[in-house]
Design goal:
Number of helices: 5
Protein name: Rhodanese-like domain-containing protein
Shape: globular
Structural class: alpha/beta
Mean pLDDT: 94
CATH superfamily: Rhodanese-like domain
Domain Rhodanese: 16-101
Number of domains: 1
Distance between the termini: 36 Å
Order of helices and strands: EHEHEHEHEH
Largest sheet: 5 strands, parallel
Number of strands: 5
Low-confidence stretches: none
Helix content: 25-40%
InterPro entries: GlpE_sulfurtransferase, Rhodanese-like_dom, Rhodanese-like_dom_sf
Length: 108
């Protein structure tokens, strides 16, 4: 079972370049996300889990913490050090932290 991290813990890790995976749908992501978060809609996690590192912590975020818990549990069962972010993007934004808008940039 994956562990849970507070938005304060995420903020500290994010400031140090921590990996954030956003499991919301593309329209939700585009409406506002943690800057630099990697989009990976929940339905794609089983197929894309192999893209994630096993040698560093992954912070999984959604809107409120429900989908991220499911995704982090899936990841943890496959050897990924995953934390579900309690309160999700809503708590991140309510805490006055930066929010990026728009779709994910495609790699060149």
């Amino acid at each position: 079972m994956a562990r849970e991290a507070s938005v304060d813990e995420l903020a500290a890790a994010w400031a140090d370049g921590g990996l954030v995976v956003d499991v919301r749908e593309p329209d939700e992501y585009a409406a506002g996300h943690v800057p630099g978060a990697r989009p990976m809609p929940l339905r794609t996690v089983p197929a894309r889990c192999g893209e994630l590192p096993t040698d560093r912590t992954v912070f999984v975020i959604c809107a409120s913490g429900n989908r991220s818990k499911s995704a982090a549990d899936w990841m943890a069962a496959r050897g990924i050090d995953a934390y579900s972010v309690a309160g999700g993007t809503g708590a991140w934004a309510r805490g006055g932290r930066p929010i990026a808008v728009g779709p994910a940039e495609r790699a060149a």
